[in-house]
Amino acid sequence: MRSAHAAPPSRAPDRRPVDADRFRQALGLHPAGVVVVTADAAGEPVGLTATSFTSVSLAPPLVAFYIAESSATWPKLRRADAFGVHLLADDQAAVAARFAAKGVDRFGPPTAWRRGAWGVPLLDDTAVRLLCRRGDTRRIGDHWLVVGEVVEAEVTAPRPPLLYHQGTFGGFTARS
Hints:
The protein is mostly beta strands and 176 residues long. The chain is built from 3 helices and 12 strands. The radius of gyration is 19 Å and the shape is globular. Residues 27-171 form the Flavin reductase like domain. One of its GO terms (molecular function) is oxidoreductase activity.
């Protein structure tokens, strides 16, 4: 029920979408957790750094991340039926940078890893490792949404998370 003193609803102005640079600048003020996603693509380990990771559901246990259509890793990763998600700790900025870099062997030294179920490359010494069976995949805008069902969750050593904020990696300090 509308109050007699409430203003009438206003009509939103007709505007074009925010340009990409302004949108990136605005969302850069929102800190995001940093993960590395890995998979086996026909015997080849592939991986990338993502800050778009999120939980989706508890029952069943689902997680998701987004990957740009333009990603050089996406054509290989999209063929994988399973993937690993590695939640990075605040002292692992070098790992995040390595898996975000172009033209490097992301799995070469100094990266320490082993193969898990379905051949999924599992990185050593991350705070958490999730093994996921790929579920839904949908194109949304200029990205792909990849949803996975978590079939294994390994918490190796709870540590403060690595965050991405205003174009740089950093840590988190809890307030007392």
